[in-house]
Design goal:
CATH topology: Rhopdopsin 7-helix transmembrane proteins
Radius of gyration: 22 Å
Organism: Didymodactylos carnosus
Number of strands: 0
Number of helices: 13
Distance between the termini: 59 Å
Order of helices and strands: HHHHHHHHHHHHH
Keywords: Membrane, Transmembrane, Transmembrane helix
CATH architecture: Up-down Bundle
CATH class: Mainly Alpha
Oligomer: single chain
Strand content: under 5%
Protein name: G-protein coupled receptors family 1 profile domain-containing protein
Length: about 300
Amino acid sequence: MNNTTTLAQSAATTGYVLELYYLLIIVLSAFVGICFSLACLIRFLREPKLRTHFNYLFHYVIIFCIIGGLFSGPYFIAGYDLILFQKSIEFCHLHVVTGYFYFIAIPTTICFTSIERHVVMFRRNGVLTWKRQLIPFSLIILYCFLVVCSFALIPQCNYLPCVPCTNLNVHILLAWQTCSFILPLIITMLSTLAFLFRLYNYFNEQARIRNGIDKQQSKTLKIVAIQAIIYLLWCSVVYCPPNIYNFLVAYNSKRYTSSLMKTIGGVISNCGLQAYPIITFFLFKSTTKSIYAQSTSRNTNKSPQEQNTTST
């Protein structure tokens, strides 16, 4: 019996440990995440200073967290408790596509944000137009949707409630993990390291030339660096353990399959992703004034023609 057949039998009989505490964790994490997500979005709409190069995409990620809280958790519970996964393959596909989408969209958006922050770190951090914000966000959504459909719907296998065919083939699973979190995580890590290196050199250069550093600009860039490190650590903690377990199960299901580990992976994934809006809420609560002040002070030093130029 080959590894795929063994995995199929194991997946069909193991399932998640759906005890009351586990259901409560999923529901509670989704509720808390949605509450903080709404608080972050309301603040984002009310405060223009959050719609800058350094900030805007971190708040758009919250939309994916809301999708996960509203759909992925309830779909999962309904699928197992109401046995809808066994009765409806369409319901299973909808659950997989929804879960895959917000699973890949979050690290991909953070990856793009880390690159953009690295590129514009010493530019004027003015308020962006809605068009300038929505274009990259729309491209990220399109990319994630195409990747998800390719991995969730194209591979064919014997239907198992509710195990994506991607998880039954170690090569396809590795390709999916590379696209969904390994490559974005590596790019985010390299961009963050490059950002910190440039920041270190910048402070040294300013200290050498001026015998002092602009305190406001120094505070702003340090805040941005701390935020980048925290998001990188969060992404590593949330995405690495479940993906490592899924890969081990696909590689040798007979040895590594465990309903307890599966449950722990589900808790880490659900609670970790719903922790993002909490992190965002507190990271930007007391720092946006400092970040916005930098762009204001820079504008006062520019000519009237330059001040009237809209950041694009």
